[in-house]
Amino acid sequence: MKREYHKWISGHLKREMEFLVFGHAGMPVLFFPTRTARFYDYEDWKVIESVRDKIERGEIQIYCIDSIDHESFYCKEVTPAERIQRHIQFEKYILLELLPFVKYNNNHPYIIAAGCSLGAYHALNIAFRHPLCFNKVLAMSGRYDLTLQMDFFDDLFDGFRNEDIYFHMPSQYIPLINDQHYLNQIRKLDITMVIGEEDTFLENNQQLHETFYRKHIHHQFYIWEGEAHKAKYWKEMLRLYL
């Protein structure tokens, strides 16, 4: 299996960003890491190994992205407004730096956004905000409203709200989308959400599933037994749904 390591100083983030690429050809997969995790964790957890056959056959090429969650959502040293601004800079890095690299490196026209836990939020949010840039989103064990106060999971903006936060919370902005042109772009996405029946985020997933149904957004929604919020489950999910 071909493996490449890349890094450069991001113009949007003003810091070094690293990532790994697995595979020589196939559909590019932007694989967002879990909460505050690193670009090498999916490899260390053997999640990448679970789809080695697809990678070696040239069906998919996975880009394991680094996280800056500790500088954005989980940075309590700055204000909530600054946290969402840092996240917006991260989105610009993905759209304006990483995606152009992917397209230069691989001319396959079909691009997938995928992620686990907070990575599922990143994948679904960027795909829905920029549906013309992606063809498929696979969101596993995700939380899609980071303002919710939940057991063991805080409101990441400490009660503060502004327009930037609203437009980056899928559970908030998707129900109110009425622009049919935009909705039709979203409806072209191949969308899969997976969550455990004992996962803390189950209710949030069910609400988003119901929103998709009301908006006539075709998608697949799977509920697994147990919590299913660990690497051993994500390996199976990736094999089944990617």
Map the helices and strands.
Elements: E1 3-10, E2 15-22, E3 27-32, H1 41-44, H2 52-56, E4 60-65, H3 80-105, E5 112-116, H4 118-129, E6 136-140, H5 163-166, H6 170-173, H7 180-187, E7 190-196, H8 202-214, E8 220-224, H9 231-241
Parallel strand pairs: 3-4, 3-5, 5-6, 6-7, 7-8
Antiparallel strand pairs: 1-2, 2-4
What is the CATH fold-level name?
Rossmann fold
Q: What spatial order of strands do you see in the largest sheet?
A: 1-2-4-3-5-6-7-8
Q: Which homologous superfamily in CATH is the superfamily?
A: Alpha/Beta hydrolase fold, catalytic domain
Under the CATH scheme, the architecture is 3-Layer(aba) Sandwich
Describe the structure.
There is one protein chain. The chain has 242 residues and is of the alpha/beta class. The protein has one domain: Rossmann fold (3-Layer(aba) Sandwich). It has nine helices and eight strands. An eight-stranded mixed beta sheet has the order 1-2-4-3-5-6-7-8, with helices on both faces. The chain is globular, with a radius of gyration of 17 Å. The protein starts with a strand and ends with a helix.
